[in-house]
Structures are given as C-alpha cells and as structure tokens.
Amino acid sequence: MIVLRNISKIFKHGTDPITAVDDVNLSIEQGQIYGIIGYSGAGKSTLIRLLNGLEKPTSGTVTVNGQDISAARGETLRQARLKISMVFQHFNLLWSRTVSENIAFSMQIAGTPKAKINARVAELIDLVGLRGRENAYPSQLSGGQKQRVGIARALANNPDVLLCDEATSALDPQTTDQILDLLLDINRKFKLTIVLITHEMHVVRKICDRVAVMENGKVVEEGEVLNVFTHP
Ligand code: ADP
Ligand code: ADP
C-alpha cells in the first residue's frame, strides 16, 4: 500500500518558487491500478518522482508498504527503489544492447547469479510476448515491442509497485490498447500495484480502478473511475 501524506514539492528559482505538488493526500491499495491524470504542468511527473524516491518532498511523507521512502537515504533507499520500478514514455532502453541484455541489466546490477538471470529473462520474454526477438536491438523493434522490453525490464526484480510515466503516449491507439492489455494481465496475474500517469482519459477508462485528477499541483478529484468521470 502507498500512502502520501500532505505532500508538497516546491522548486526554488531564486525569488520565484514553483509549487509543483501542493499538499497531496492519497492512498493506493495493494493490487490496484491507479491513474493520475492531468494536463501538462499539473505536477504528475514530480509526484511520480516523489513516489520512487528520486525527489524528496519539501514537506509530507511517502510510505510504500510501511516504509518511509521520503526519509530513506543511501543503501536503504537503493534497496527500496529496487521494489519500485518505472516504465517510461520513451522506453529508455540501452541502444547497444539486445532485448535480453536490456532485461538482464538491472539483475546484473543487483548481483543476481547468471543462471538465475537467464531463467528469469526467458520467463519475462514469454510474459511480454517477445519470444523470437531476444537477440534483436531496440532499433530493430516497433514502438510497442520496445515498450514490452521496458515492461519486462521493470518486472525483472519482482517489484511491489510499477510506476508508468506516460507509458503509452508515444504509441499509436492500437498499440496503446495492446500495451494496456499487457499491464492489465500483469496486474491480474501478480496482484501487482500499478500507478500510471497520463494525460489521456482513454487510458484511465480502460484499465484504472481509481483515479486522481491533478491541476496546478493539487488533487482536485479522486475516486473510482466511473464516479469521477460520470457527471450529471
Ligand atoms: P506534469 O508531469 O503534470 O507535466 P511536472 O511535474 O513536470 O508536471 O511539472 C509541474 C510544475 O513543476 C511545472 O510548472 C514545472 O515547470 C515545474 N517543475 C517540474 N520539475 C521541476 C524542476 N526540476 N525544477 C523546477 N521546476 C520544475
Ligand atoms: P555501453 O555498452 O558502453 O554501456 P550503452 O548501451 O549504455 O553503452 O550506450 C551506447 C550508446 O548509446 C551511448 O552513446 C549512449 O549515449 C547511447 N544510448 C544508450 N541508451 C540510450 C537512450 N535510451 N537514448 C539515447 N541514447 C542512448
């Protein structure tokens, strides 16, 4: 479970501070697919960086499964972050490495034994539907295939939470739906908590259980998707 309590993030620009996130309170249950939607500049990316400990809040606390990520530092933070994975809009794959090598990379960093890495890579290749493409380079893949690699890589260390930052925004509508189906499948299979930020209503409607609407750093609406998007 993820709990954000009175989270604010203020960036200081000389005399002109910017409040990117403004007193946000949210609870995300284990196993939920949780959407954070808002226009550009609403504070979504900052919020997701606070969730994975890349940014420290100016005030407030972020706890993930009881651990205070906002206070963690050094090795404690590094260990915690292994369990909070990211999927990116522009995939962030290593260009000079194959599909298998990209997926294996974070396990190598984590010091996983080679035999275990190979078995896990094979399992993940099957899970995301890339069998036959193991030795391809990212430049040889379609956008949807690149994102499948991004998702496999994110799952490598058995995370508790998957954070998706505009994960389908660079994809065409049909590929978007295929990637959303994959995320849904992973959520159901592993009861994995997924938090996704997006500016697309369609993405939230298709797979999210709950949604928070952000505007100017604040959560202006929050609830079950059907309730939030159905207005009289
Ligand atoms: P979104 O992801 O919804 O587009 P962001 O979180 O990127 O929103 O940005 C929210 C606000 O915070 C914007 O006004 C943005 O310019 C500002 N901001 C984000 N990151 C920084 C930063 N590192 N330094 C200064 N201002 C930032
Ligand atoms: P190495 O095997 O030497 O660690 P990398 O695979 O990290 O090399 O990167 C090889 C080259 O590709 C570098 O010049 C790097 O800047 C570039 N590169 C790797 N990943 C990306 C990416 N996601 N976007 C743009 N350039 C990248």
TrEMBL record:
It is a peripheral membrane protein. Residues 2-232 form the ABC transporter domain. Keywords: Amino-acid transport, ATP-binding, Cell membrane, Membrane, Nucleotide-binding, Translocase, Transport. It is found in: Cell inner membrane. GO terms for molecular function: ATP binding. This is ATP-binding cassette domain-containing protein. It comes from Siccibacter colletis. The chain holds residues 1 to 232 of 340 of the full protein.
